[in-house]
Amino acid sequence: MKRKTIKIILGLLLASLLSANAQNLKFGILAGFDVANSQLMNKPKGFDSRVYYPMISFNLNGYVSCRNSGFWGLSAEPGFIQKGGRQKGIDEDIRFQINYIQLPILLDLYISDKFFISIGPEFSYLINAKAKSKHNSNNITDLYDKRFELSGLVGINYQLTDKLNIGMRYNHGLTYTSKITFTDSFGNQLGDMKEYNQYFQLIVRFKI
Most-buried pick from 1, 38, 72, 151 (CB within 10 A)? Predict the structure, then answer.
């Protein structure tokens, strides 16, 4: 039921975008400097140690956007993003790089001619995942339970010129990427920790 609802919403948004006057459509490329992290939810009592730390990553997207005659518009931004997090080891850190094809579908609310807020869902599909250190690289794709990820995104943007705008965003997963079952000393299951992606992002969009 949830997937059907998501498909309907996505279809309506894309239909609205494609039915816009061709003169109002803008096409371009988008690049982002990201600070990604993985968050564990529902940790058991006494589990106070921090598992993941922020990791520098990136994204590269195309985009198509349109604005109606009023204060709002729509944007679709298909592309690639690297999510994940970093673990601190004794001798070296390990980067958990989770690579996705992503599609943010955003409602753009224009505060003024220069400023606009973007908010909406991001649909992502896992390509692969690797655990990397200075001397090793291991494929860990099978450790993640779900290939499809739904997340929420909010950001603020500033139009520098007619062809260039910059922005700052925050994204957090609404669906988990993996589930870890924890037990007591006798092996009895006590519950599940769930892992979610999140990231902060600085972006540059250039209109072609």
Answer: 38
Q: Distance between CA atoms of 125 and 207, rounded to whole angstroms? A: 26
Domain count within the chain: 1
Residue 125 belongs to domain spanning: 2-207
In terms of C-beta distances under 8 Å and separation of at least 24 residues, what long-range contacts does 80-84 make, across chains too?
81/32, 81/34, 81/57, 81/124, 81/199, 82/34, 82/36, 82/57, 82/58, 83/36, 83/38, 83/57, 83/124, 83/197, 83/199, 84/36, 84/38, 84/55, 84/57, 84/129, 84/197
Kindly report the CATH number assigned to the domain that includes residue 17.
Answer: 2.40.160.20
pLDDT digits (tens, 9 = 90+) for 130-177: 999 988 999 999 999 899 999 999 999 999 999 999 999 999 999 999
